[in-house]
Structure formats: C-alpha cells, structure tokens
C-alpha cells in the first residue's frame, strides 16, 4: 500500500528554498546515523564526500544527505548542516568534538532565477534545524526542486518546470520510498510510457521528443547545454550494509531510465543514494527491484506537483 515518505522511521527531512532566486536544498538526516550507498551514472556530478560511501571506506554510517541546487557552488550547504549537527552533539566522536558525516549532490539551476544566489551554509543550517524541530517535506517547487526544469536539449527557451517528488510503499513490515529532484536534459514519461513533460514545441503548447531532436543532428557537440542532473535518495527500513545499498542504488537507476529519456548523458550528473534506516530483514534484490518502481513514480510526482514558475510552464499548465 502507498504511504508517505514521512512514515519511514529513522529519518528526518527538512527543506529550505529561495523562491525568488529559484534554488534550495533538501536535507535527510538522522542523529544516530544511517547506513548508505550511492551509484552515480551521469557524466557531470556535483558532489561532496560521496567517496565516504565507497564500500572500501571506513565509515559504516553517515548522519545526513543533502540534495541541493546551485551546481558545485551550492556544495557549501553541507557546512551549515555540519555546524548544526555538531551543536547537537551528532557525529563521529573524536574526543574534542563530534564530526558529522554529511554527503551532498547538487543539480544545476543557475539559469532559472538569480544566477548568483545559491544554497550556502546558512541555508543548510536552517534546513537541518527544520528537519530536527519540525520536518516539513512536501512535493513540488520546494527544497532542491525549487529551480528544477526538464527538456533542455535546445536550451531554456523550450524547457518545463518540474520540482521534487516522493513516493513510498509498505509491504508487510517493509517500508520503501524515494525522494527525487528532477532536473533532466531529457523528457519525462509515466509508467504507461506516456510523455508528461520535457521539450516543448515551438508554440510551447504541447510536447515533442528530445530523442527525435537529437537524431535530427548527429554532429558532435563539444559543449552541450549543461543545466541538468537528477538526484535521488532511496529510503528503506530494510537492514542492509554499504555494499548492498550501493547495489540497490544501482538497481534503482532502472526506474530513472524508464521515466527519463535520454538519461545519464554527459550533460547530466544523475546520482542515487540508498539509505537503510531500519532493521527489517528482507531480500536485497527484492528491494532493488522495488526501488526502481518507487523512484519512477516519485519522478512522476515531481512533475505532477510542480507549479509553473520563472516563465517555465509546468505539466498542469499544458
């Protein structure tokens, strides 16, 4: 049955956005820490400390994952999350203080609102505080999805507004969900294969195919439009360790590939984290297969809940 992403115990989610500037961040955290893995498929990721999630690295658990806008400029938001968590005594005990372990991935929204306003330490601190004191997650033009757009093979003139979306299910004791900020070069499709967002036609009243436009010109493009990247977190109460979570994240990319076409291009930085925040014994491959399904639906929810903004129409406007 469907549940809210907020119904998965062990994690807290806070979001802050600057609607005027068209950017924001979403923080998923735990004061006790959670196990996590990552799989990066896009050619241009903007990330911080993701190497902590390499199975060869020593860290068994981390304290927070930040999804943000601002491209590489926005990676400073993690510093604010660390500041807040340190004040709460959260993190790896090094004797003189606690060092919070925080990873981050950002999408490119610099061409949406104010180019020079990006998520920073102050915004990250506030998002972490909200996660602790009054978790406020909701789908739409919020957090990391504030400046998200799709369908940008021809630049910003024919793209559409999207946002951040979530979807979660419960099967017996297992709870599994996804959060995703959808900011792709390509088009978005629902589970029936129907295009629901992406590249607009010349009159901006309907949709056309990004793949068809790409096929019409096979010449090498040295500097593709790079304002992209879809970033996601799979969250489960299933009990897994880091190598298993890296595999689950990899399997979840199947859901991204079903919902976004094309995907994982050199102009995208598509990254998926997988988080284990519980102790339910469940088969890894079952969770990986379901993760692809919930991520695909979360991508659709990000499109359906977005509001047109910054001159870009949303799906509900067509």
Structure keywords:
318 residues; alpha+beta; 5 helices; 17 strands; 29% strand; globular
Structure description:
This protein is an alpha+beta fold. The protein is built from 5 helices and 17 strands. It has helices at residues 77-87, 121-133, 210-215, 242-259, 284-304, and strands spanning 2-3, 12-18, 23-40, 46-48, 62-68, 92-93, 98-99, 102-106, 149-150, 160-161, 164-171, 174-181, 187-189, 195-197, 231-238, 260-261, 271-280. The strands form 4 sheets. Strands 1, 2, 3, 4, 5, 8, 11, 12, 15 and 17 form a 10-stranded mixed β-sheet that branches. Strands 14-13-16 form a 3-stranded antiparallel β-sheet. Strands 6-7 form a two-stranded antiparallel sheet. A hairpin with a 4-residue loop joins strand 6 (92-93) and strand 7. Helix 4 (242-259) crosses helix 5. It starts with a strand and ends in a 14-residue tail after the last helix. The mean pLDDT is 95.
């Amino acid at each position: 049955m469907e549940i809210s992403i907020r119904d998965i115990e062990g994690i807290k989610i806070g979001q802050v956005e600057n609607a005027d500037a068209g950017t924001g961040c979403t923080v998923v955290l735990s004061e006790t820490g959670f196990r996590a893995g990552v799989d990066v498929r896009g050619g241009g990721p903007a990330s911080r400390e993701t190497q902590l999630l390499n199975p060869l690295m020593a860290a068994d658990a981390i304290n927070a994952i930040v999804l943000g806008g601002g491209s590489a400029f926005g990676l400073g938001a993690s510093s604010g999350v660390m500041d807040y968590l340190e004040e709460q005594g959260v993190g790896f005990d090094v004797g003189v203080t606690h060092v919070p372990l925080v990873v981050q991935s950002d999408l490119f929204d610099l061409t949406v609102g104010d180019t020079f306003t990006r998520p920073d330490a102050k915004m990250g601190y506030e998002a972490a505080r909200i996660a602790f004191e009054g978790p406020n997650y909701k789908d739409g033009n919020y957090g990391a999805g504030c400046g998200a757009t799709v369908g940008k093979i021809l630049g910003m003139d024919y793209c559409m507004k999207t946002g951040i979306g979530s979807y979660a299910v419960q099967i017996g004791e297992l709870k599994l969900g996804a959060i995703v900020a959808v900011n792709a070069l390509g088009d978005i499709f629902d589970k029936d294969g129907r295009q629901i967002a992406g590249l607009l036609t010349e009159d901006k009243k309907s949709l056309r195919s990004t793949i068809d436009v790409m096929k019409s010109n096979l010449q090498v493009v040295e500097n593709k439009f790079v304002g992209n990247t879809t970033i996601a977190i799979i969250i489960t109460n299933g009990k897994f360790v880091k190598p298993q979570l890296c595999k689950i994240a990899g399997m979840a990319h199947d859901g991204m590939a079903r919902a976004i076409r094309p995907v994982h291009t050199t102009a995208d930085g598509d990254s998926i984290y997988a988080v284990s925040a519980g102790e339910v014994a469940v088969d890894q491959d079952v969770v990986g297969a379901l993760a692809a399904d919930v991520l695909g639906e979360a991508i659709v929810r990000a499109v359906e809940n977005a509001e047109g903004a910054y001159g870009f129409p949303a799906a509900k406007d067509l």
